[in-house]
Amino acid sequence: MGRSTPKSNDILRRVLLLSLFVFLFLVFLIFKNVSLSELIQRINISWFLMLFLNMFIVILLNGVKFRLLVNSVGNDIPYIDALKIVLSSVFASNITPYYSGGIVAQIYLLKRLKNGTSSATLISVMYTILTIVVALIFAVILLILPHPFLKSIRGTFIFSIIVLAFLFSSFALFLMVNPTKAKRLVSLLFKKFSLKVDLLKINLEIDAFSEGLRFIIKDKKHLINLVLVNLVSQFLHNLIGLTSLKAIGIQFDFYEALITQIASSFVATIGIIPGGMGITEGTYLLLFIPIALKYAPLQTFLFRMFSYYIPSILGAIVFYKTLGSFTEEVFKNSSLLRDEGH
User: Fold this and answer.
1) What separation in angstroms does the CA of 168 have from each of 94, 172, 196, 226?
2) What pLDDT, on a 0 to 100 scale, did the predictor assign at position 8?
3) pLDDT tens, residue by residue, 260-297
4) Is the separation of the CB atoms in 4 and 327 below 8 Å?
5) CA-to-CA distance for 320 and 54, rounded, in angstroms?
6) CB neighbours (10 Å) of residue 335?
7) Cα separation of 288 and 257, whole Å?
8) Alpha helix segments (H runs only) across 34-178
9) 287: nearest Cα among 196, 152, 190
10) How far apart are CA 251 and CA 93, in angstroms?
């Protein structure tokens, strides 16, 4: 049974306060531009219900992806347990900087539910690698496809985000393919900036990602299945933003809105602040104002509600039910705790 500690409770309090502040600020922006009566009139119930369906399909597909990953290493896991791990990792990643708690939660829970399986780290690392691969695929597709509407400053900004996503994901995969070069680069950066870190631990993490990439590409058929499931899942996740537009009666060009949404999602993965709070909302508002106009805060609110708040709440419930408490064992490897000397 897990055990809550003052440190883990402090993390939760800070994240909850930050979430509440961002939540209330969005509510303030909504009612600054739209009256309650107008808001009620704008909501399309059918599309609003579609948001729930969209969100749950994404969650269910992520459970399928996790189970496929477990199967790929010669193990099996009940689908309901895969779903528990995915939901719990959503919660853990959204309350830690750089989403670092997600992979730790997956490893911890997989070992707990599978009685200490030795492949837990490999499975969780491959889950993250798939996300990077899909980000690269989306970036390549968007760079190749024509986008005549991206001519303004906003268009240049969106295109720059796509280019950066391509460069970052390509570079991440390059480092995984070349772990020796990755270690040299990390060592050089830490020496240059005189950073105090556990270099051995970072080198072990580099080795784990390198091993994960080698393993995942061994079986091409299985790799294609995993990438396809992840592509569909990520595409549907991006559709939450577009469904939000429909839910408030906004007419829009599907292609333009989709590219805007994907670019916004790329920014959200930066994750310096837990859950990308503030950064995601700010970027989303800036990019979608030309499409949603005065309803942009409302659309941002709906998107974050169904892509962040509700999944995080569901994840917290599953996390607590599975472990019995919010245990520090899951948080101790996050950047937040490392920075505080733990």
Assistant:
1) 21, 6, 24, 21
2) 58
3) 999 888 887 765 677 778 888 888 998 999 999 999 99
4) yes
5) 25
6) 16
7) 8
8) 36-42, 45-72, 79-94, 100-113, 120-144, 153-177
9) 152
10) 34
DSSP, collapsed to helix, strand or coil, labels residue 4 as strand
Q: Flag whether pLDDT at 19 surpasses 90.
A: no
Residue with tokens 């270099």: 199
pLDDT confidence of residue 293: 92
Q: Cα separation of 54 and 233, whole Å?
A: 10
Q: What is the pLDDT of residue 336?
A: 33
- Per-residue tokens: 118: 């030795």
Q: Is the pTM of this model over 0.70?
A: yes
Phi and psi (nearest 5°) for 79?
-60, -35
Bridge partners (DSSP) of residue 91 are none
Cα distances (Å, whole numbers) of residue 212 to 16, 36, 75, 126, 168: 34, 51, 16, 5, 18
CA 285 → CA 51, 153, 264, 293, distances in Å?
Answer: 19, 15, 9, 9
DSSP annotation of 195 reads -
DSSP of 197-245: --HHHHHHHHHHHHHHHHHHTTSHHHHHHHHHHHHHHHHHHHHHHHHHH
| The predicted structure's pLDDT at residue 150 | 65
Q: Are 260 and 287 in contact (CB under 8 A)?
A: yes
